[in-house]
Amino acid sequence: MRIAIIGAGTVGSALARGLKGKGHSVTLGVRDPSSPKALALAGQAEAGLALPAEAAAASDIVILALPWSGAEEAVKALGDLSGKIVVDCTNPLAMVDGELVLTMGHATSGGETVAGWLPGAKVVKTLNTVGAEMMEDNAALAHRPVMFMAGDDAAAKAKVADLLSDLGFAPLDAGDITKSRLLEPFGLVWINQALFRGKGRNWAFAAVEAAR
Ligand SMILES: NC(=O)c1ccc[n+]([C@@H]2O[C@H](COP(=O)([O-])OP(=O)(O)OC[C@H]3O[C@@H](n4cnc5c(N)ncnc54)[C@H](OP(=O)(O)O)[C@@H]3O)[C@@H](O)[C@H]2O)c1
Prior knowledge:
Elements: E1 2-6, H1 10-19, E2 25-29, H2 36-45, E3 48-50, H3 52-57, E4 61-64, H4 68-76, E5 85-88, E6 93-96, E7 99-102, H5 110-117, E8 122-125, H6 132-136, E9 146-151, H7 154-166, E10 170-175, H8 180-196
Parallel strand pairs: 1-2, 1-4, 2-3, 4-5, 5-8, 9-10
Antiparallel strand pairs: 6-7, 8-9
Helix pairs in contact: 1-2
Bound molecules: NADP nicotinamide-adenine-dinucleotide phosphate (NAP).
């Protein structure tokens, strides 16, 4: 698949490295493709570099790895993505009174908001419930980590499931895009343990089945 990753920060660069060698053509969509930082990241991941809208236009799957605070402007600047699969791994977080909180959740979600910014795109919410390190390499975990997906298009979710499998996850369909309202607080469960309760970042959720 031709994959654009918009945002080459912690998540974008981890996903680019994680997808390296999996047979995909990855392009990082960055604001300054000639910056030494972008060139170094692209070199490590054997990925291409382009401006965000150019990267998105040339790809079948567009992964959003953007901070929520700048997401609306950045996503709307990508242009018309109708027909494309868009993987939303953002979490709609903000600091409020010194605490990291979700800015929405009961009546809507980040996933639904992103879908509203991109009419005609097939938005799939996923990869928001684990740290970037586990996206790059989770082979040492005792169980295969689970990764939920929420989206309205079954064919798009099937392709995203293949991508998640390539990254070492067991994909699990959570339902339509409104189920982002479940997945985003679940992301905060991981963040709370990892960052605020001392568990660290070297773990992921697993769905463990009975043997019979
Ligand atoms: N970090 C994690 O472990 C983790 C795990 C799961 C989900 N998430 C979610 O994933 C998202 C990204 O997190 P992150 O930790 O990767 O953030 P980050 O390290 O701050 O990286 C964000 C990247 O987005 C880029 N960016 C901002 N505006 C842009 C624009 N208009 N066009 C192109 N690129 C733009 C920034 O580029 P510049 O360098 O040019 O500013 C930066 O490289 C967040 O919504 C976060 O909640 C994070």
